[in-house]
Known about the structure:
11 helices
Amino acid sequence: MRKKIVAANWKMYGSRAMAKSLCTAIVAANPTHCDVLICPPDPYLSDVADLCGVAGVGVGGQNLSEHIEPGAYTGEVSAAMLADCGAHWVLVGHSERRHYHAESNELVARKFAAALAGGLTPVLCVGEKLAQRQAGETDAVIADQVGAVLDICGIGAFEAGMIAYEPVWAIGTGHAATPQQVQHVHAFIRSQLEKEDARIARLTRLLYGGSVKAANAAELFAQPDVDGGLIGGASLVASDFLEICAAAR
Ligand code: 13P
């Protein structure tokens, strides 16, 4: 069976000191039964890459510019710059980017393309809001979010990529989606990819994110279409994160 992947999204939390102590603890624990990916704030990327890269822990950015070429885009960071600081991965379309920074499906798809062009592997984040779930629109929302990337980049773009299903109502709320809800959406995403290419659909790793903690991780990870997790709050405490890694067998 393929290894699961446990990814940490530190969001805008931490410090250089915290980055160092978290990475040191993760490397010391050496969780080899699962793949580990850490997505720190950009200023800490090089530190994290130096500390973790040698131990086989993946490093990723949390966002990138849709512009591929260097240019006068104050405050933006390109895929090439993330790669230059040691990143191999990048989150694209996290719900906090979609909602606080008005990133549309189309912009997210362009960022996905820019990541690939810059040599990074994108992790496409998708998820519905509570009102959309209550209105029975979950599958349609997810289909549009994934479909925008398929339209611009094609199914081949998922050859190495990952998709993280993160229902907005589950992020940071302490209320994770149920294993059944997660499995339903993951199977739906896989079937959407399958229509384009069955092999790539099988290979694409589908992560769940939203209030994952040690207590619920094993049951979520046991779902047939769940290949790992994208962890926010619980990734900021080494022991919590490592317990989640231990559940990813
Ligand atoms: P929490 O684990 O804090 O709910 O955050 C999930 C998330 O947004 C990871 O990208």
